[in-house]
Structures are given as structure tokens and as C-alpha cells.
């Protein structure tokens, strides 16, 4: 149960008393009583796995179990050198746990910063509290963009329209009146009000869904599912091969029992690409930590991977390319309208909306209310309508109804005022039309016949970092599409100022074809779209996806929620509405559009590098399986002890893979992970196995007498190391100074083992004579040339 101090549950920073006549909400004593009974909204909302789950997930894996059994066997029958692979696994698992715990700490810290705080009325005072502190019976206030945190019943409604599409799939907003039910998980699209909480905690309709959606997870990721597929095939291969190897070494050969066990385990252990899963987790965890330092909350970890695959970014203009605030630059009366009277109208309109949007806030700042007029009815702004309105009693017996919104929506086509508006839009200015309605405000056709009275000209503040971010996307071959509810010409002018390619081609979304394939063609051909409705934003995302595009959608307003939900990756601004933050996979807590390139770059680094190092791990798996099969078929002793393959894995895979996985990588992530990795792993592994086995057979005929077995193994190990080192050199391309240094350092490490007497004894590696060692080098060189040729043929014949 969440603990709440009843005397300190309200945020004292911004307490607001409700207007006279409104409900005062629960008292402090009633809150304390409900807390004592456990009637608290205590659903655990987590951005990460628990510590127990992290430890369990890293320790209790299929391959850790297999290696653990083999490790225990080796500790019983062989020297400690042959059990090194077990210590490596312990160290790797420890690293994985530590990194994921660091990522958890980062995620949990950011989640607290980005947590939405509903406004609750208690003791007659409205203040923000944590969602988890809502108690049964609380009076929760609502405004546009607010997500409904718990189930409840409407107590107050002022044009309250709620979107329940995330729960029911129905896109049309529902008008709510006092007494109507509200479901958690829905959100307010227009108007305002308050509701009484009737179900909290796990009883709330969407509580279980919310808990599942916010959980730290690595599922639904092509990378993770691809690795799982590979591991499944490896398991199928490993079981029969291991059985054959056991029979071959224990039954067919009349060797020393303990030595046979050691060589058998030496054949099984390298088949397991145990470090691949771990390295993927570590790479993702470090990605979360790096992005966390830039105030970027990754709510679903695969979003890092998803954004790396994105080829189209849909941007909402307001709040993304422009800052939230605006300034009124001019009021242009139309006809013989009196400007002083119009200022009073605008002041009254501003006062009529308790939750003004950015445009109306600018008007409120420019034209304060004179308090002479009384609002008798109001119509909140809606993204679907494109206008708001209010009816007033003017204090002198006169009554009037006014509308404020998009000129091209309120005015008929061909109206002379539209030409003047067009010139202003071309300068990137936003223009609202103030019009006097002819009918009642609640009439469905209230805008019909409205008489234009004035143009309100607003200037939008461009984000200083937007131009650089758009340039980055252009350089990375990511298309940027500006999708806005504003006038298309105005949006195009803003985009042109920021240097967006194709900004001159603006499209009014009201003229877009409804058929999906035709819409997709229009979207491919143009870059700027205005007068887009929330449902159209969703349709446009779907149309782009139907063309094979991977789409990211950014936004901060409630009108972006449907599109954010359907996009491959939804990105919300931290200052955006609670609803957008709830459905987005990535939240930019610093509200900086310039953080997006960092997210894209981090995703590309993770995916590109994991694809690289996966090839290293799987080449080892392939050559281990092939060598084991060759041993079984030819009925010879297995080539290596576990210590030999531990040394090879450490120098040609483990250490270099760690550095390569964390290196910069700007290549856009490509699909078909399994195919892309296996097309290199199969030829590389097969050639390495054949070359190693050829050296071994040659050594068996060359060496005789005492020490022959060690000399045979040493020659085979030399060949396998040199071939594996060449595969590493290929994977490390394109070369930089540190990549060359990394490959050279691994080569020097092996040379050290071959030349230092203590290390020779420890690893049982000693080259005997000169003939066969040089033959091993020659075979390795020939095999490396074949692998180089094979990789080039693969690139040409089997494109990714």
C-alpha cells in the first residue's frame, strides 16, 4: 500500500481555490481514513524490472544451466585451467547484472521526473499530487490532454469531450455530462471538468494494461527475437552433436577417462554463444544510461532499436519545430469593426476558457479581460473543429456569440479575406479569425454564416535547434514530414525557414485522397501538410507504413495521441499532454527536439554493433559444431581442451566484441538480422573448421611419441587462432587507429602465451619444431584468403 501523509498530500507550490459553488472534494481527515483502509491507487507503475527479476533474468538462463553443469564436471575431473570458461561466465553475468541495475536506476529516476501529476481538489483547494496518491472518492480535475488515471463518475463538465480510443478502438470523442462514467486510460480532447474516483488501484479498468505497458522489456525486438531464433537452432544442433561427441570420446576411444571427459567438454562448451545474449543486454543498458544523461526517458527499451530503423519522421509543427509560446503581433479589424470593442471580445474569450491553449494564452496576455462581460456558454477548442467559441452577456443588455479559429475553416472558399490571410501565412505567421456567430453556440452548424470581424496575427517562436536536427535527418537519409493542424502555407513557411527539403510543396490535408495507396503516394511526394485532423494523422502514419516505411511520430498535443500510438515509434515532449506521454515509447524530458539525433545514433550504434559481434560469436558456434562432427565421423580424439577454446574465445571474441559493441556506428539498421548474420557465420565457421582439422590431421601424422598430443593440439590451436583473428579483422572494418590497435593487441596476447614458459604450461600450448608450425600458418593464410573471398561473394550475391 502506498503511504501518504494526510497532512502533506497536496503540492503546496500552486494551490488553487475552486470558484464559488463548486464541490470542495475530500477533507484531510477523509483522505487519512481512506489511506488507512488501503483505498489508494497503489498500482506499481515501473519503468524497469525489479532487482530480483534482473538477477534472475541474468543468472537463470538456458545456457548458464548447461555451462554450469559442465563447469562442475570440469572442476571434478580436470585442472583449474580447464574450468576457466566457468569463471568467465560468472564475470560476464555479473557485468550484465551491474549494467542493468545501472540502467534501472537511470530509468526509475527519469520516470519520477516525467511522471504526470493529476490535479486533485481537497479541502476546497486544487493541487497536483502523484497518481499513486489518489484515494477512493477524490475529486480529480480535468483539462485538455489530461489522461484519466482511475475510473470515476463525472461530477462537473464544461464541454468535456473524452477520447476512449485507446480502450475501445472508437476514434470519435465522447461528450461527457455529470453522472457519466469515465474509464482509466482514456483522455480529454476538449473542454474540462472534474470527476469522482470510484475505482482505484488494481480495480481500475486500465490498471493491469498500464502496468504491463510501462514494464521494462526487451521483447518485440527484431534483434532479440533474431538472437532467440539463432539460439533455438544452436540448441537443436548442439544436442545430437554433443551426444555423438560423448560416445566418440568415451566409448569408441580407449583413453584415460578423466582426459576423455575434459576433451568432450572442450567440444561442447564453444558451441554455446553464451556471451551474445549478455552483450546485447549490456549494449541496450548502456544505451539507456547514455540517453538518460541527455534527459531522454526510454519507456520501452526496444524503442532504441526501433528508432534506429526509422526512415521517416513525422513532425508536429507546434511544440516540435516551434516552441510552445506565441506572441500577438497584430489585430486587423475587418470592415467597419471597432478595434476597442474587438479587444474586449478577445479578452472575454480568453477568460471563458479555464485551460487555454498556446494561441489563446497569447491573446490573454495581449488583451486582458475587462470583467464587464459574463460568459453564459462556452465551446472549448477542438483539433477536429479547428475553432472555439463562447456566448456573452455584455452587461448592457446585449448578448453575442463569438467564434475564434482557423480562417479557412470558418470562411467559405473565395472569401476576399482569405487572400490577405494567405500573404500573412506565406511569412510563417499564424492567423486566427474572430467571427460573430449568427446562431446558437450549441447548434451543429454554428460556424455557418458567421460574420468575420478581425484577424488576430500570431508569431511563433522557432526552436533554435530545429534547423540542425532537420539537417541531421537529411544527412542520414531519413525523410522528415511536417504534419500540422495549422494552415498549410503557414506551416510551409516555418519549415522553409528551418531549411526542410521540399518545404515549398505544401498540401492542404482536406484535399488528400481518402484511399490509402493514393494517400501514400501523396505523402511520398510532399513534405509539408496542413489542416490535418487527428484521425488523418493516424491515417497518414498507416499510409506510410503500408509503403514499407518505418515511421516515427513526434508530438506534444492531445491531437497527436492516435498517431503516436500507431507509429512504429512515438516520441513525446516532456511538457506535452499526459496522454501523449502515456502512449509514447520515448519522452524527451528536456523538451528538446535536438535530442532525437542522439536517440537515433544510439539505436544505430546498438543494432549495427550487435550485428557485427553476433557474427564473431556465431562463427565460433559453427566451427565448433563442424569440428565436433568431423571428430565423430573420423573417430579421432577431440582437438582441444576447454582451456584452449577459452583462450581463443577471449582473444578473438570476448574482449574485442565488448569494445566493438560500444563503438560509434552511424549505419542505419537493416532488417533480416538472422539472415545477415548467418550469411557470414556459415562460410566463416565452415572454412575455419576445415582448416583447423586439416592442420590437426597433418600434425597427427607428423608427431609421434611423448608430447605428441600437446604438439598436435598446439598446431591446430595456432591455425584456428589465426583464422579467427582474420575474421575479427574483417568484422572490425572500416579501420580506425583503435580498431587496428585492438586486433594487434589480441595477436600480441596470443604471441605472449606462446612465448612465456609459465603461460605455455598453464594453457598446455607449445609449438614443436618449425615445419608444422609454419605449415599451420600457411593453412591459416590460405583459409583466411578463402574467407575474404567468400565474404565478398556473399556481399555481392546474398544482399542483406
How is the topology of this model organized?
Blueprint: H1 28-37, H2 51-59, H3 62-77, H4 84-113, E1 119-122, E2 125-128, E3 139-142, E4 151-163, H5 165-168, E5 174-175, E6 181-182, E7 187-199, H6 207-213, H7 222-252, H8 257-268, H9 274-292, E8 296-298, H10 302-309, E9 312-315, E10 322-333, H11 339-352, H12 358-366, E11 374-379, E12 387-393, E13 399-405, H13 407-410, H14 417-426, E14 430-436, E15 451-462, H15 466-475, E16 479-483, H16 488-497, E17 506-508, H17 516-525, E18 528-530, H18 534-546, E19 551-555, H19 561-566, E20 569-573, H20 578-583, E21 586-588, H21 596-634, H22 642-661, H23 673-702, H24 708-731, H25 737-755, H26 757-763, H27 771-797
- Radius of gyration equals 34 Å
Low-confidence stretches: 1-18, 209-219
Q: Give the DSSP E fraction (strand runs of 2 or more residues).
A: 15-25%
- The helicity comes to 40-55%
Strand runs, count: 21
Region (Disordered): 1-27
Keywords: Membrane, Translocase, Transmembrane, Transmembrane helix
Subcellular location: Cell membrane
Domain P-type ATPase A: 118-212
Amino acid at each position: 500500500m502506498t503511504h501518504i501523509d494526510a497532512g502533506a498530500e497536496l503540492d503546496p507550490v500552486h494551490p488553487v481555490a475552486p470558484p464559488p459553488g463548486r464541490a470542495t472534494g475530500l477533507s484531510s481527515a477523509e483522505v487519512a481514513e481512506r489511506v488507512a483502509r488501503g483505498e489508494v491507487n497503489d498500482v506499481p507503475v515501473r519503468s524497469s524490472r525489479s532487482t530480483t527479476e534482473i538477477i534472475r533474468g541474468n543468472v537463470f538462463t538456458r545456457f548458464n544451466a548447461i555451462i554450469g553443469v559442465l563447469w562442475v564436471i570440469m572442476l571434478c575431473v580436470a585442472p583449474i585451467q580447464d574450468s576457466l570458461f566457468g569463471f568467465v561466465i560468472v564475470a560476464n553475468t555479473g557485468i550484465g547484472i551491474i549494467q542493468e541495475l545501472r540502467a534501472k536506476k537511470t530509468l526509475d529516476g527519469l520516470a519520477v521526473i516525467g511522471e504526470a501529476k493529476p490535479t486533485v481538489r481537497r479541502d476546497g483547494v486544487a493541487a497536483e499530487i502523484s497518481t499513486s496518491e489518489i484515494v477512493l472518492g477524490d475529486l480529480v480535475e480535468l483539462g485538455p490532454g489530461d489522461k484519466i488515471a482511475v475510473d470515476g463518475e463525472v461530477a462537473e463538465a464544461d464541454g468535456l469531450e473524452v477520447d476512449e480510443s485507446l480502450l475501445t478502438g472508437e476514434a470519435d470523442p465522447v461528450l461527457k455530462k455529470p453522472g457519466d462514467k469515465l474509464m482509466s486510460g482514456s483522455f480529454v480532447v476538449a473542454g474540462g471538468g472534474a470527476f469522482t474516483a470510484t475505482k482505484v488501484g488494481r480495480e481500475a479498468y486500465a490498471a493491469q494494461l498500464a502496468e504491463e505497458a510501462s514494464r521494462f522489456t526487451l521483447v518485440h525486438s527484431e534483434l532479440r527475437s533474431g538472437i532467440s531464433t539463432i539460439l533455438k537452432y544452436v540448441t537443436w544442433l548442439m544436442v545430437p552433436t554433443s551426444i555423438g561427441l560423448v560416445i566418440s570420446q568415451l566409448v569408441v576411444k580407449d583413453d584415460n577417462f578423466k582426459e576423455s571427459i575434459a576433451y568432450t567438454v572442450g567440444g561442447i562448451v564453444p558451441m554455446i554463444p553464451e556471451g551474445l545474449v549478455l552483450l546485447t543486454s549490456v549494449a541496450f543498458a548502456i544505451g539507456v544510461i547514455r540517453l538518460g544523461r541527455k534527459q531522454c526517458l526510454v519507456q520501452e527499451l526496444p524503442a532504441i532499436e526501433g528508432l534506429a530503423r526509422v526512415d521517416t519522421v513525422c513532425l508536429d509543427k507546434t511544440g516540435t519545430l516551434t516552441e510552445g509560446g506565441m506572441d500577438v503581433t497584430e489585430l486587423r479589424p475587418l470592415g467597419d469593426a471597432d478595434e476597442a470593442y474587438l479587444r474586449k471580445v478577445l479578452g472575454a474569450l480568453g477568460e471563458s476558457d479555464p485551460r487555454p491553449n498556446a494561441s489563446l494564452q497569447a491573446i490573454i496576455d495581449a488583451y486582458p479581460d475587462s470583467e464587464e462581460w459574463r460568459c453564459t456558454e462556452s465551446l472549448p477548442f477542438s483539433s477536429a473543429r479547428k475553432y472555439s467559441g463562447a456566448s456573452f452577456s455584455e452587461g448592457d443588455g446585449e448578448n453575442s456569440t463569438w467564434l475564434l479559429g482557423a480562417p479557412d475553416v470558418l470562411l467559405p472558399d473565395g472569401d476576399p479575406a482569405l487572400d490577405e490571410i494567405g500573404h500573412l501565412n506565406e511569412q510563417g505567421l499564424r492567423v486566427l479569425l474572430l467571427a460573430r456567430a449568427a446562431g446558437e453556440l450549441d447548434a451543429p452548424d454554428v460556424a455557418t454564416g458567421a460574420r468575420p470581424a478581425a484577424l488576430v496575427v500570431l508569431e511563433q517562436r522557432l526552436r533554435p535547434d530545429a534547423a540542425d536536427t532537420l539537417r541531421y535527418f537529411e544527412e542520414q537519409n531519413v525523410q522528415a514530414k511536417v504534419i500540422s493542424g495549422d494552415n498549410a502555407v503557414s506551416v510551409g513557411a516555418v519549415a522553409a525557414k528551418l531549411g526542410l527539403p521540399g518545404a515549398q510543396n505544401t498540401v492542404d490535408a482536406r484535399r488528400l485522397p481518402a484511399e490509402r495507396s493514393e494517400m501514400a503516394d501523396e505523402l511520398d511526394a510532399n513534405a509539408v501538410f496542413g489542416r490535418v485532423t487527428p484521425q488523418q494523422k493516424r491515417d497518414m502514419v498507416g499510409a506510410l507504413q503500408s509503403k514499407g516505411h518505418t515511421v516515427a511520430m513526434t508530438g506534444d498535443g492531445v491531437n497527436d495521441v492516435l498517431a503516436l500510438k500507431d507509429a512504429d515509434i512515438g516520441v513525446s515532449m516532456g511538457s506535452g499532454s499526459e496522454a501523449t506521454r502515456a502512449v509514447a515509447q520515448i519522452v524527451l524530458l528536456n523538451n528538446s527536439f535536438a535530442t532525437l539525433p542522439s536517440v537515433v545514433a544510439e539505436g544505430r550504434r546498438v543494432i549495427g554493433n550487435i550485428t557485427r559481434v553476433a557474427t564473431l560469436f556465431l562463427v565460433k558456434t559453427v566451427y565448433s559444431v563442424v569440428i565436433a562432427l568431423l571428430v565423430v565421423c573420423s573417430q579421432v580424439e577431440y582437438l582441444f581442451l576447454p582451456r584452449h577454446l577459452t583462450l581463443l574465445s577471449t582473444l578473438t571474441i570476448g574482449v574485442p566484441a565488448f569494445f566493438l559493441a560500444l563503438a560509434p556506428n552511424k549505419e542505419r539498421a537493416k532488417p533480416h538480422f538472422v539472415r545477415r548474420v548467418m550469411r557470414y557465420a556459415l562460410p566463416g565457421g565452415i572454412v575455419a573448421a576445415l582448416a583447423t582439422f586439416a592442420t590437426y590431421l597433418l600434425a597427427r601424422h607428423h608427431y609421434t611419441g611423448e608430447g605428441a598430443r600437446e604438439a598436435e593440439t598446439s598446431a591446430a590451436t595456432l591455425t584456428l587462432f589465426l583464422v579467427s583473428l582474420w575474421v575479427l579483422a574483417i568484422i572490425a572494418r572500416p579501420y580506425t587507429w583503435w580498431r587496428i590497435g585492438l586486433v594487434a593487441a589480441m595477436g600480441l596476447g596470443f604471441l605472449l602465451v606462446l612465448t612465456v614458459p609459465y603461460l605455455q604450461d598453464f594453457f598446455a600450448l607449445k609449438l614443436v619444431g618449425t615445419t608444422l608450425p609454419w605449415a599451420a600458418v600457411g593453412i591459416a593464410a590460405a583459409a583466411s584468403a578463402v574467407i575474404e573471398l567468400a565474404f565478398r561473394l556473399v556481399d555481392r550475391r546474398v544482399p542483406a
